Amino acid sequence: MAPTPKKRPRSSYIRFEAAMPGGCWQADFTHYRLAGGADTEILTWLDDCTRYALSVTAHERVTGPITQGTFKAACDRHGIPASTLTDNGLVFTTRLAGGRGGKNALEHELARLGVTQKNSRPNRPTTCGKVERFQQTMKKHLAAQASQPATLAELQALIDAFCSEYNERGPHRSLPHHATPAAIYTTRPKAPRRPHRNHRSRPRPHRHHRQSRVGHPAPQQETPPHRHRPHPRRHPRPAHRRKPRHPRPQRDHRRNPPRAHPRPGL
């Protein structure tokens, strides 16, 4: 029998945390069964710095449009974050799908808003450990209820009550002085977002050999103060449009050219 490998010690993990609220949002979804046996999925958006539960919603099945919609709703209430951190589920990213289908709805929305998207490595659940730990605590609270929810509406009501208790009144051991997530989230300044660069709004450089659409020549750029003027063409002319080169006459550069041979018979 092969010995069971030991678990990695907790001291070997590298802790990381966003410096300010809104610097990074973690997201993940988990499963929960209703009283009738139907399976549901709960999607969570959590602030990395303060552990504040931004959005926790229950669904029959979490899809790409649902993930995008919950993210937009959280942005409307709390502002746009600087970055997001998720695993490699298809509702979050398609980078491991082999390039089939292109980007999903959330990836397009993050690119439109200029939000940096970060994903954990495969089989590394500890990277998104904050939202994983939140979901574990939430599921233990839901399972301890005497009356189990039978519908999505009842499950959502229990989730809302838990989030209110968790954010407003529950002290968190990972926060300074065991403060509540809401106390830290509402008192600290939010992280600034990096400037969004829209490639379509960049001014296109004018070329000397091109003309504008209305038929007028493009404005000439000032010549830099150097001796040689740069050639206006950036790319070489195609081979079929090149001018033929005339062969240069060969010259003899020797100082003493060879003398002509005397005529025969002289």
Could you describe the 3D structure shown?
With 266 residues, the chain is α/β, with parallel strands linked by helices. The protein has a domain at 14-187: 2-Layer Sandwich (Nucleotidyltransferase, domain 5), CATH 3.30.420.10. 24% of the residues lie in helices and 12% in strands. The chain contains five helices and five strands, in the order E-E-E-H-E-H-E-H-H-H. The longest helix is centred in the middle third of the chain and has 18 residues, at 152-169.
Offer a few descriptive terms.
Nucleotidyltransferase, domain 5, alpha/beta, elongated, five-stranded mixed beta sheet, 12% strand, 266 residues, 5 helices
Topology:
Layout: E1 25-33, E2 39-47, E3 53-59, H1 64-78, E4 83-86, H2 105-113, E5 116-119, H3 129-143, H4 152-169, H5 181-187
Parallel strand pairs: 1-4, 4-5
Antiparallel strand pairs: 1-2, 2-3
- Detail the poorly predicted runs: 208-213
What spatial form do the alpha-carbon principal axes imply? elongated
Oligomer: single chain
CATH architecture of one domain: 2-Layer Sandwich
| N to C succession of SSEs | EEEHEHEHHH
Percent in strands: 5-15%
Compute the number of helices: 5
- Specify Rg, calculated over alpha carbons: 33 Å
What is the distance, rounded to the nearest whole angstrom, between the alpha carbons of the first and last residues? Answer: 112 Å
Query: Averaged pLDDT, please?
Result: 78
CATH domain class name of one domain: Alpha Beta
- Strand count: 5
Strand ordering within the main sheet: 3-2-1-4-5
- In CATH, the topology of one domain is named Nucleotidyltransferase, domain 5
**Sheet with most strands:** 5 strands, mixed
Structural class: alpha/beta
- Percent helix, as a range, is 10-25%
At the fourth level of CATH, the homologous superfamily of one domain is Ribonuclease H-like superfamily/Ribonuclease H
